[in-house]
Design goal:
Keywords: Membrane, Transmembrane, Transmembrane helix
Number of helices: 1
Radius of gyration: 27 Å
Strand content: under 5%
Shape: rod-shaped
Transmembrane segments: 6-27
Distance between the termini: 79 Å
Length: 67
């Protein structure tokens, strides 16, 4: 089986595009994980702030099904 120069170039180009795609996909997945963690941390901080403000005012939210 003989490969012509054009076929070799196409194969190398295809492999290069595949490598770039996999690197880009890995970066996107990492960013999505970071963003979800950041958003969860932000919500936890905000909930803690709201709870602290409610304790200062003295109006505690009900903690159970019967208040």
């Amino acid at each position: 089986m003989n490969l012509e120069p054009q076929q070799i170039f196409q194969l190398v180009s295809l492999l290069a595009v595949l490598a770039l795609f996999s690197i880009s996909l890995r970066g996107q997945i990492g960013y999505a994980r970071w963003f979800k963690k950041w958003e969860a941390d932000r919500k936890a901080r905000r909930d803690a702030e709201l709870d602290a403000e409610a304790r200062e005012r003295g109006d505690q939210p009900p903690k159970g099904p019967w208040g």
